[in-house]
Amino acid sequence: MNSNAWIISIGASLAAATPIVLAALGAILHERAGVLNLGVEGMMLIGAVAAFLAADAWGNVWLALLCGILAGGSLAIIHSLLAVTFRANQIVAGLALTIFGTGVAKYLGEPVNGVAISTSINEIKMPFVGNLPAVGRVLFQQDVLTYATWAAVILVSLYINRTRLGLALRAVGESPATADAQGISVARVRHVHVLLGGLFAGAGGAYQALARAPGWNQEATTNGIGWIALSLVVFATWRPGRALFGAFIFGFAIRSQFTFQAQGITIIPSLVLDILPYALTIIVLIVMSFGTARQRLGAPAALGMPFVRDER
Amino acid sequence: MNHQNEVRPGESPGAPVLRATGITKRFPGVLAVDNVDFELRAGEVHTLLGENGAGKSTLASVLCGAYQPEAGAVYRNGEAVILNSPHDGLTHGIAMVHQHFRLVERFTVSENIVLGDPSIGQFLNRNEVDAAVAAVGEQFGLPIDPTAYIYDLAVGQRQRVEIVKALYRNADVLLLDEPTAVLTPTETEALFVTVRAMTKAGKSVVFISHKLGEVAEISDRVTVMRAGRVTASVEKTQLDRHELAHLMVGRSTETDAQRYASNPPGEPALVASEVSLVTGGRTVLKNIDLAVNAGEVVGVVGVSGNGQRELADVLAGLAETTRGSVTIAGVPLSHVGAKRARKLGLAFIPEERVGTGLAPSLSITENLLLTRSRPTFISLRTTRQEARELIDEFEVKAPGPNAACRVLSGGNAQKVLVARELKGDGTPPAVVIAAAPTRGLDIGAIEQVRGLLHDARERGAGVLLISEDLDEVLSMADRIVVLYDGGITLEQSRPYEDRSAIGRAMAGIA
Amino acid sequence: MISVKLERRLERKRFLVVSVPAMSIFAALVAGAVFLEATGRPSGAVLSHMAEAAFGSMDGITNTLGTCTPLIFTGLAAAIAMRMGLYNIGGEGQLYAGAIASSGAALAWTQDASTPFAITVVFVAGAVGGMVWILIPALARAFLGTSEVITTLMMVFVADRLLDYLILGSDSYWRDPLSVGFPKGERIPEAAQFAKWFDGSLVTVALPVAVVMVLVVWAIGWRTSLGFEMKVIGDSPNAARYAGIAQRRTIVVALLMSGALAGMAGATEVGARAYQLDPGGLRLSLGFTGIVVAALARANPFGAALVAFFLGGLQSAGRSIQAASDVQVPKSLALTLQGTILLFVLGGEIFSRYRPRVAFNAATPHERLGAEA
Questions:
Q1: Which end of chain C is more exposed for a tag (fewer CB within 10 A), N or C?
Q2: Dihedral over Cα of C118, C124, C125, C126: its sign
């Protein structure tokens, strides 16, 4: 078997994971605050198209990235307005956002369909470690945003688990009434984290447009990545580290079928690898429904529920 | 016991640390607290005593900042304070331990305790925090493991976490809302040790309860509440359990019209034999033997929290017994569920009206259909007409038959519920279980509800009347049993000559 | 001090139920017009062109009716789940599964069949496919309490990959063995291809079937004991327990009905439009739009039909403006407008549930007393 093909494949699946991990990190932040967000797909698409249009117009990839992030964030503001301030049904609001985001992205992307941009986020070979055999190729020849994403996983994890604000965030998502009684503003925590979620999703979309597919393809550029990110959040039981790990599994499942095919291995039908991420997520969800696992791993207890103080 | 010597310097002995005047709190359709004055001195345990719905918890919620009163003022150490949230209460050193704990299940003990504490800094140093939490626990004889997760803790331990949470934030006024309701006797003893340790350290405790034995044991002062008002306030030296029981449930000024069966009782309709129930590791019903015959009313009296709710659920087929059996008309109820029990002629008026007995968002019309046997295809037209007639007959204040039950006041909702259960769809019920059927109703509604219960008996139903209102039970029941701590401790038949024996049994005095 | 407080309305005022969404839709169209102008297109011309294309002519109306037919099915699917407070957001996947089942059944059993038989096979198979696709989420919800939101959603992507696999990834039963260059589905027998009514319009027998299902869903949901029990469970599980309603069974039955309806949308796509299993053509988000339909219709089946008609018009107008030479607007404008309308209606909802109270002096007597002291 050609081990080099596998090394390249693993390296590529790590890069393929980056936009998913970015969006999943955002989704973890806003879902930890108790706000369900089915709008991730829309936020990513908006981020992608904004980034692409900016790169096309100005040719600066970092400016483009910023545009993508802000676009995702602005959609998130609509979401938190609906879900937190207006106490709308979060399921429907999220879907509405995805529909809206998809519509706008496709509308704006139509004129540039098939256009390629000259600039993109490039891979950086780290000095010394980048030359290591196998490991160097897999871990230390990625682009800068992938490195930043790995760092973000650590930072977000520390933020959630090791800071006072993170404690407040978790309390708001688990038991808003308790948090409220301790003087924590539930609405403010939710607004802030939904916005953060949108900024991350926008970054993920922008990455997808700038690094993964440096040409705009109306149908394929970020199609479905937001949904994969959402399933990843569930699979990772709302924990950043596991999301990174899960994204590698997901990314590898998606990538490896090409490698399998290239290697002429046909024992595993491509369908099995294709549906693996979703099947795993369903299995995790079902396992989480049982007694102690539900207590330990289940969704934030107040996920999807608007908070109103004392409506007696 | 005299705590005055232990009071911290700088405060005059026994000075009020918390005072409230003229507190009034209204909820839609209910005057929960009506112009109440309250005072708490340093280092004392001041008990609020009263039956369910008397306004104790509402008053305590006002004192801790959870509710804002319509009128009245709260003074902390002599100064007027505005408490717009529990957090405001906490900043003034007032903390409440609610009946339903305010804990994040998936947090560790210390995470729960330091939540919202600005003094811990931006980063959470777990070791430091754990040590601080353990230290506070030790100081008051409350050993807790700071690293344990709440979901792994038993109820008594969770309560301990709530108390440590208050102490950690330097609260020196603690309001404990029915803390013993969920505790085993041993846990209750441990709690009392803690309460004494706290008062010794100069803290003051408001203790809410309706268990007279405990009240006598722990209180320095007792304030009795009924129907949102204070009916008495007594010092420890004057405590008399029997008198307290009377103040709590008695209505000596009103005489209830007596209604008893006009015919001798018939065959057993509802029979419980050797019924025990264990839930969450606590034995809530102990070996209950009870038979209700056709054409009689059997009253279950007792201070609430002694197993009434569980008894009603078991008899209505909503909960499985741990041991023993329940039969309706000779047919055992085990594994058949509520629907089957209804087919056997059961009518059940549960304690919680809107939310259990009535579906809140459904209309009055739809709620009439809730417990009937329904054909596959239903038409609301005839039921709507029925709802209209019901609204007229019982003077239900409702916009119309399509009004959601959620918008009805307590009394009007109860009229709908009782009328549905007792009038049925033509066939009169064979067994009626009525839990607290008149609680919180006005006089007119009370009379209507009792009239309906009486009619059901006259038409041959066996009626089980579960009520905290002793006078109500004595005025209607042909036989009574006293439920104390999950078991039947006394049984009496009409005429009830020894009321004091009933009162003693309710208070748990052998 | 001025403050705005939201006060819960005890009763839903009847006029608000109509006027608030109407105002919201108007506001959404204004926002859409602003968006058009901002992107350099004449909003007046575009919007009037769309209205004309969707509802202005016989052709337009038949197009709209044909386009809205699957939306009626998916809208009903979401609505019947919402009746009991559940969210089947996997209608899209059940639609795919329905399409797979109905095309497979048509290939297998309708070769020399009569038209009525073939049509029945297509719809029944579609319904069964949809039911199979929701079975695991339904059982998990009923017996384990697993939230149906994510499980049904995940099943969408499983169906999505399965679609590709059947046509593009394998020599399956569904694939046309003669399609060498770009693989496509095998054409279903003629008997199973729904006739196009009104001179080759998009309207087929699926439309009356959809209308019948509106009545069936209304009858089951609003006029049977089962529908009543669904409503009780959705409102208050405690009351359902008290009334002895079999909650698990009801949850499973309701979700299976929901899946069946979404599957029938897939059958419609096969029998009325594609005549084959057509992965690319199926991916129109009809299932997701069904949730929008149900949400806008507040889960009422007649409302769902009406909303589906308007959204169908919007979509068919979207195709038209893309093709029209004078305006040339991307058809995704329709999707954008649809999202905008939904966002505005959702935001507006609060005004029918809460009453905004503007207070010029927010202090309560209690606070005033405190302030004086």
A1: N
A2: positive
